[in-house]
């Protein structure tokens, strides 16, 4: 009540004060502000009694009853709703905002005649249909079966970025990698101090002594800061090589260098727009917007669509030709590749909005059903035997008629003799539908081993106008070496289709970090196998998939230690136990002690030799059953290859080496006979050879060491006694490596040829029984085998031909969607 009294007591604006003469001048007097304030005009002082009786809740009436509200709300009572969804825009709302000063009577009636449409290749037929409705249905959702796709345009056209990667092992990055990167600020010295600074050192001393004391102090302080700056600058750059080496590529800025990889977007023509109409294109989500680029083709040129880019009426009338690409790929725990593109148009009082959803294509691993395009290998430390391996591989590549010659990656300045080209990267690809077939990009996938500097070489060495590279950095161990990553060719099973095939990885004690990256692609549903029984723990040590002409289109090759054991036992039973177990001849690059001196009897007499083969066979069978369950493959589609395994122990081997002369061989045979007569044959066969001069020639890390984080590697014992190895051999769970060169660790050259390491089995009646048995196994799939020697280059370092090479395969016919 007091508030009411006060409001009533205040004079209304423009009212004439009582008892004052009315001043009727046509022009008001600006100096007059009414009479002076008089407190008596406020009325009597406030009395609380004037507020009336205190509040009583009973005076509010009866409590609320929902039944008093009448019947429940029925949307049908509202009548028709005039605003349509999708391509019809918010016209009524726009009109209410367009002319706020209009009265209700003057507001024109709401109309919804403005319709706009943005389209992409949502039905994945390689083109955008703006005349019909094939790309209209479901365009605002994305599923595995439908929805438009685009590429991550991470190639390096004209090697703009790759050419600025230098250093001993791709460890120096040019300025282009640090654009916008917060480097230390260079100190500035007053130019007046140095304006007469001479270049000559002797003149400089006179010049410096001529400076004032304050200038000398300033100069010395500047020199000190410059030194600190240089150190900080180099530290900032050197410390971020692995993090930044992948950040420079075609889409790392806003310039379009290669329109081949733009996915198309179109807006339908809208000839009824007025000259004042404007439009805009944007990406709805902030994360997606940072990973997507949009372009407008105008005047024959592609122009980047920035956040403030506005389309003119003439372009909107004709329909927009747009393109989209990505700055990155699908990432675990990050961007999933989805992008909603919004199209908006304003034309006077009318506004319209439409959208379309796309997703960046997944990064996929290639399979052997894709024809071989190019072989790759690595130099290592350029030792003579590795150079010979490279030369022979190049000759085989040429004879195979591949499109591109052998590519040799220079790893001579990388960590200890990095020759494992299969293990520090995996060739993959991305592809989307195009008007003339798939549009594809090769993608080199770095192993998830950030300590493995050779992985940087894919960004320096392999990128081009058609090849990009990605990395998922982690401190992965040997199961993250990409020799552990294989791919089952395409198949259908249990009402599921895998048109790109499925990735296969082995697990040891830890889940490979690469699994997260593969899972994020959501396409190849990785199959996991138990490889803990292997020292190196790679799937390519015992399993391979071959394309064949059959309903399925492929078969599986697997190692068979039982068959390998049978070969030796049969030779022994046939009286050949005294023959050398290895038939390898001398190579020009071999060490002096090159000939393997072990006999068949010695191998078979190793304690638990047969039991260890049986144990390995059991693990292989376990993994075969996994592939059977996941793919539906039958026993008839599984081909077994004779093989044998030994226990792995660092720097220790079962094989003994001798010099190349007939006398040495006779001595070896006589020694075996003498041991048998004294009952000592079993003991001699069990003892592995100590380090010999061939270790110096081999050098560098073996396949396991190269894929082990340095800290873990340093914690392992470097040496072990023969006795400890013997003890390990007798344990069932000792980890295995190939005893003879593992022929399954081979390269699929084409649909008819395999390049495998020569097993150099024992010569029985003029024939290498292992080589013959392997040929016979591959012949079942109509393949012939080309053998090459890798004994001292790779086999003695627990790897083979496949481990020491890599392959880029054709993409032209690949269609995964």
Automatic annotation (TrEMBL):
The entry's keywords: Signal
Region annotation Disordered: where it falls in the sequence: 11-110, 660-732
Keyword Signal: yes
Family matches, as SUPFAM superfamilies: Pentein, Peptidylarginine deiminase Pad4, middle domain
Compositional bias (Basic and acidic residues): 48-79, 660-673
GO molecular function terms listed in the Swiss-Prot or TrEMBL record: calcium ion binding; protein-arginine deiminase activity
Residues of the Protein-arginine deiminase C-terminal domain: 352-653, 728-817
Signal peptide: 1-15
GO cellular-component term (any): cytoplasm
Protein name as it appears in the record: Putative peptidylarginine deiminase
Source organism (scientific name): Metarhizium acridum (strain CQMa 102)
